[in-house]
Amino acid sequence: MSKISRLISGFICLCGVALFLYAISDYYVQLRDHCVDQSCEAFYDTPPSSEWLQAHGFNETWFAAAYAGLYGLFGIVYISVGLLIFRKKSSEFIGQLTSIALVTQAFTFNAISFGMQNIHPVLTFCLQLFNNISFGALFTLFFVFPNGRINPGWSRYVLALILTVGTLKGFFPGTAVDIEQIPPLFAAWTVFWMVSLIGIQIYRYRKVLDALERQQTKWAVFGMAVAVSGLLLISMIHIFQDELLQNNPLYLYFSDVVLLTCMMAIPVALLLALMRRRLWDIDPIVNRTLLYGSLSAFVIVIYIVVVWYIGLIFQSGPQWLASLIATGLVAVLFAPVKENMQRRLNRFMYGDNEDPLLVLSRLGEKLVDRLTPQDAWQVVVHTVKESLRLPYAGLSLVQDGEALLVAKEGIVQEQLVELPLIHRGDKIGNLLVCPRSPGESFSPSDHRFLEMLVRQAAAVVQSAKASIDLQRVAEDLRDSRERLVLAREEERRRLRRNLHDDLAPRLAALAFTASAAETLLQSDPAKTKEILIELQTVIRSSVADIRTLVHDLRPPALDELGLIGAVNERINDLCRPVNPPVAGSSLASPNGLQFFLHAPDRLPQLPAAVEVAAFRIITEAIVNVVKHSGATRCDVHLRVDGRIEIEVTDDGLGLREKTEWLGSGGIGLGSMRERAEELGGFCRIESLQPRGTRVLAYLPIIEANQGSVSA
User: Fold this and answer.
1) What is the 3-state secondary structure (H, E, C) of 13-48?
2) CA quadruple 623, 626, 627, 628: dihedral positive or negative?
C-alpha cells in the first residue's frame, strides 16, 4: 500500500511539474500578446497600456517577462522544495502529502493557470482536478502535520466536511452545490474553516504532539504566519489604496513581489520542519520577526500620522518639511521603543531572566506569608518555572545521602538540568529545570538568572529543611520517650511479678517455717534441726534470687570492677580459666574457643546508662558466640573516642536465622539495638567473608552528674 501511494503521489507531482512548465510559457505569450492594452483572463489587474510602458522605457516583452519571471520563480521554489521533500520523505505519508501540496500550489495559487482554462476542455478539466487536489492536500496537511496521523479522532469529520464543500465548489462552480452562490452561507463557511484550522493546530500542539513535533509545528506556523501577514498587508493596501495601485503598474508589480516573497516562507519552513534542520532556532527567529515587524509597523504609522497631521496644520507648507519632522520624530522614538518592545518580547518568550531583582522581590512577597515547608518549596519551584517560562521545575533535597524529590511543577522533559543548592558550603539539594524545548540550551542570561536565584533559594530551602528536621527530631524524641516509658513500665511489671509471685510467698513461707521450728524446739530438737537446715537452704536460694534481681537492674561487677573488669569477669565465667584475664590476653573456653580482649587500661568517667548498655551488648554478643557460632576465636574491641565503640568479631558460621541470635536468657538481637538507639547510638550485626560475624555498636558518651571510674 505504501508503494502504491508513493507511485500515485509521484505521478501527481510529475503531472504538476508538466502543467507548470506548459502554463508558464503560455502565460508569457498571453501577457505579451493580449494583456497589455486590454483586460484578459491571464492578468486580472488593470493592464498597463503600451503608451505607459513606452513612456517609462519598457515594452510588451519586458512586461510579460517581469510577471512570468516572478511567478516562475515562485513556482520553482515551491516545486523544488516539494520534489526535495518527496525524495527524502516519500516513504512517509506526510512527505507525500506535503510534496503534492507544494507542487500543485506552484501554479494554482497565482494567475499563470488562468489563461489555460478555456484553451481545451481536457485542459480545463485537468486544471479543475489539480485545483481540488491542491485544495485537499493543503487542508489535509493542516490536520496531520507533522506526524502524518489525524488525531484527535473527531477532527476527521471536520476535515471531511471542509473537503466535501470545497470539492463541490471546485468541480461545479456556479451551480446549486456551489456554496459561493449563497453569500451569507459562504461567509459562515469561510469563518468555519479558518477557525477549524487554527483550533486544530492549537489542540494538537497542546494535547497530541511531543516536544520534537512541537518544534516542527512552530516552523510550519511561522512560515504560514509570514505568508498570511504578507497577504493581509497587500489586501489592506488594495482595500484602501487600490486606485493608486491600479493607476501605477510599478506599484502593482511590487505589491505582487511582496506577496509572493512572503508566500515563499511556507515551503522553506516546511522543508526545515520535515528535514528537522535547525529546529531549535525558531524561537530567536520568531523573537526577531515580531520585534522588527512591530517596529516597522510603528515607524510607518508614526510617519503617516505625523505627515498627515502637519499637512492639516500647514496646508500650504512644503511637503519636505512634514517629511523631515516625521523622520526626526521616528529617529528619536526608535531606540526607546525598540528597547521597550525587546524587553516585553523577551519577557513573553523567555520570562523575567533579565530582571532577577523583580523575581526575587516577588518570591520574597510570597514567602512573607506563613507557609509550611512544603508550601515554601512549592513557591520556589513555581517562581522558577513561571519566571523563565519553563516546561518543568523541581526541587530535590539530600537526605541520608539520597536525593528526595519534595516539590515539582510541570511535565518533565527528556533533558533535565540539575543545579546544586549550596548553603554554607554544604550541598542541601538540587534545583531541577528543563529547557524550554528539547535540544535547546539555556542562554547566558538564563544562566546568570538561575545562578542568582539558586543562591537566594538555597537559604529558603535550608530554612524549610531545618524546620522539617526539627519536626522529625521532635517526633523521634517523642517516640524514644514513649519507648523508654514503655520499657521502664515493662521492667517494673517484671520486677513486681517476680517479687509478688516468687520472692514474697517464699519469705512468707520462711516465716511459717521459723515459727514451726520455734514450736518444736522443746518437744522435738531433732526435727527442729532438720527444719533449720532446710530453712538455711531456702534462705540461700532467696538471697541468690535477690542478687539476680539486683544484677538485672545493674550488674554489681560494674560498680566493683568497672566496665573492663566486668567484661573480663563475664569472659572468665564463660571460659572458667585458672588465672584471671588481663587486657589483650587470650582465654580459652572448654570447647576450644579463645577470647581476645582489646581495651585501654583505663576508661574515662562514663554515665551509668552507657556502662550498662555497653556491658549488656558485649555480654550478649559473646554469649551468642559461645552458643551459636561454633567459632574458635572471638575478638572483643572496646575503644573510646568521644564515644564508645564496641566491636565483637568471630570466625564462626556467620549470621544465620535471626531466631538463633535470640538467647533465652539474654537481651536478644532486638534489645541490643534498642539499648544502643535509646542512647542515640546504633548497633549493627553483619556477616563477614568468608566466614564469621561482627557486632558493631556506637554509644555516645552523654555528660552526667554521676558516674563511675571504669578500669
Assistant:
1) HHHHHHHHHHHHHHHHHHHHHHCCCCCECCECCCCC
2) positive
Answer whether 602's CB lies under 8 Å from 661's CB.
no
C-alpha to C-alpha distance for 121 and 118, rounded to whole angstroms = 7
Beta-carbon contacts of residue 28 (< 8 Å; ≥ 6 apart): 64, 65, 68
Locus of grid cell 530535590: 396
- How many Å apart are CA 652 and CA 654, to the nearest integer? 6
Question: Which residues, other chains included, contact 419 with Cβ-Cβ below 8 Å and sequence gap of 6+?
Answer: 430, 431, 432, 433, 450, 451, 454
Query: What distance in Å separates the CA atoms of residue 428 and residue 399, rounded to the nearest whole number?
Result: 8
User: What Cα–Cα distance (Å) separates residue 435 from each residue in 350, 382, 413?
Assistant: 10, 15, 8
**Which whole-number Å values give the CA distances from 337 to 185, 295, 298, 300, 383, in the listed order?**
44, 8, 9, 14, 28
Give the angle subtended at the CA of 523 by the CAs of 522 and 526, to the nearest 5°: 90
Specify the DSSP class assigned to residue 182: S
Report how many helices (DSSP H) and strands (DSSP E) the chain contains, helices first: 20, 12
Q: Is 699 helix (H, G, I), strand (E, B) or coil?
A: strand
Phi/psi-derived region of residue 682, left when phi > 0, alpha when psi is between -120 and 50, beta in every other case = beta
The length of the chain in residues reads: 711
Characterize the bridge pairing of strands 633-640 and 594-598.
parallel
**Does an H or E element contain 354, and which?**
none
- Nearest CA-CA partner of 356 in 459, 286, 455, 437: 455
Q: What is the pLDDT of residues 622-637, one digit of tens each?
A: 888 888 788 888 999 9
The 10s digit of each residue's pLDDT in 96-142 is: 999 999 999 888 887 787 767 666 777 778 888 888 898 899 889 98
**C-alpha separations of 239 from 77, 249, 312 in Å:** 29, 17, 24
Cα 706 to Cα 55: distance, rounded to the nearest angstrom: 121
Collapsing DSSP states into helix, strand and coil, what is residue 91? coil
Distance CA 564, CA 611 (A): 10
Q: Residue 376: CB partners within 8 Å, gap ≥ 6?
A: 367, 460, 461, 463, 464
What is the Cα–Cα distance from 556 to 554, expressed in whole angstroms? Answer: 6
Q: Does residue 373 have a cis bond before it (omega within 30 degrees)?
A: no
SS3 for 504-541, per residue? HHHHHHHHHHHHHHHHHCCCCHHHHHHHHHHHHHHHHH
* Alpha-helix runs per DSSP H in 35-182: 50-55, 60-89, 93-108, 121-144, 155-171
* Structure confidence by residue, pLDDT tens digits, 538-568: 787 777 777 776 666 677 777 778 888 888 8
Cα dist from 631 to 40, 409, 589, 692, whole Å? 113, 58, 11, 8
95 φ, ψ (degrees, to nearest 5): -70, -40
